[in-house]
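Structure in, sequence out. Go:
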């Protein structure tokens, strides 16, 4: 008797899931019973210091951000039951688009439900088979998916390698339009893209530059505008995508920001914009309040960078190896996958929430725990975390000192 295809479908899935578990690659969800923040409560009631959120400015659980979202809900309602162009645009969406443009130094901005959608919907309307997209090998999954949806020729340069970028620009010489695409900051290593050099190469070869600012908007650069401010190339970047789901409040939502004609074309042709519901007004209103606050003061951005510098210095002093840099993503290198898992589990027991990363998420032999600093962390919390690092590191024989 043959086994029905439906049965083999489900049993096949179960086998694959079992295999993921055996390989240690299965991703369980960590359930929090509290707001997001420097301290969180887990489902079982444990208080943990959180060192693995993208909550760079510490805004996700803040009362004033929640209040701004409540006020927007009271004024504009819960949702729109519509895509933007039919009857889903409110004044708050237009105000937020203007505020993002002003903050980033661009002409116009289009909102999406997520940065994943912004990246997914940016290439296909703007480039076709006559054009070339030249992409950093470690760009985010959403950029890779967006490029796949577009007919342009694809060129990939070795991660952060300017010599290879130039080789690829030369290889794409016969294409009509060329666009260089990079994450502004790469989230696994905290590596900051060399936008000054990228812009120079773009000028030399007549290419456009697009950056994904998910790990930069709100805190990179002297006033937190992003990697383009950090590298002093504001005005030289053609297209910026970013998220409202990390530093800029932490709920969800994304955007693309660029010249007027680019944004106008995306409003006509970008599929995640045309065929998906409007961003909830509560998020638009709270994001607007966040941008207003960040435009008034660099206090949160400054505190984040102070926390980062303190943590980077102290974790090395204790005897851990980190990837050098200045970004609040601090990869603490443990090299071995089971060690990274054991270490993260021990830190959890010691009251610190951390994520272990290993192959295939990072290259083989580069297993690590990734620490992410926040402006919300107090010095006392960071000292507690460092003590836990020292204890777990000593127990597992990981310290250099
Ligand atoms: C570099 C980068 N781009 C895009 C995204 C997607 O952002 P969102 O959560 O807004 O879809 C992320 C989030 O993980 C990211 O890290």
């Amino acid at each position: 008797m043959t086994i029905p295809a439906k049965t083999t479908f489900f049993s096949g899935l179960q086998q694959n899931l079992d295999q993921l578990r055996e390989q240690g690659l299965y991703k369980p969800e960590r359930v929090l019973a509290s707001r997001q923040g420097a301290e969180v409560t887990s489902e079982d009631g444990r208080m943990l210091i959180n060192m693995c959120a993208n909550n760079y400015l510490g805004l996700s659980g803040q009362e004033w951000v929640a209040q701004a979202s409540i006020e927007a809900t009271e004024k504009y309602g819960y949702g729109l039951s519509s895509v933007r162009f039919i009857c889903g645009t409110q004044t708050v969406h237009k105000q937020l688009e203007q505020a993002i443009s002003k903050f980033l130094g661009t002409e116009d901005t289009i909102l999406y439900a997520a940065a994943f959608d912004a990246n997914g919907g940016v290439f296909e309307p703007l480039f076709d088979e006559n054009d070339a997209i030249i992409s950093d090998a470690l760009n985010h999954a959403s950029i890779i998916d967006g490029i796949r949806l577009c007919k342009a020729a694809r060129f990939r340069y070795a991660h952060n390698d300017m010599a290879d970028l130039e080789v690829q620009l030369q290889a794409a010489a016969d294409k009509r339009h060329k666009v260089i695409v990079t994450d502004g900051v790469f989230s696994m290593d905290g590596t900051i893209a060399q936008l000054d050099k990228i812009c120079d190469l773009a000028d030399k070869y007549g290419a456009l530059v697009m950056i994904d600012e998910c790990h930069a908007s709100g805190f990179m650069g002297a006033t937190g505008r992003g990697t383009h401010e950090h590298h002093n190339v504001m005005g030289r970047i053609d297209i910026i995508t970013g998220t409202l789901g990390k530093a800029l409040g932490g709920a969800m939502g994304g955007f693309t920001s660029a010249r007027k004609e680019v944004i106008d074309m995306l409003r006509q042709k970008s599929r995640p914009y045309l065929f998906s519901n409007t961003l909830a007004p509560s998020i638009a209103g709270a994001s607007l309040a966040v941008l207003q606050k960040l435009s008034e003061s660099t206090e949160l951005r400054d505190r984040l960078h102070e926390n980062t510098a303190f943590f980077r210095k102290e974790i090395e002093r204790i005897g851990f190896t980190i990837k050098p840099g200045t970004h609040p993503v601090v990869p603490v290198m443990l090299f071995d996958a089971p060690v990274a898992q054991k270490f993260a589990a021990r830190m959890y027991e010691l009251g610190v929430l951390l994520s272990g990363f290993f192959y295939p998420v990072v290259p083989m032999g580069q297993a690590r725990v990734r620490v992410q600093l926040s402006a919300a962390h107090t010095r006392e919390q960071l000292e507690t975390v460092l003590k836990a690092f020292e204890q777990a590191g000593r127990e597992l024989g990981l310290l250099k000192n």
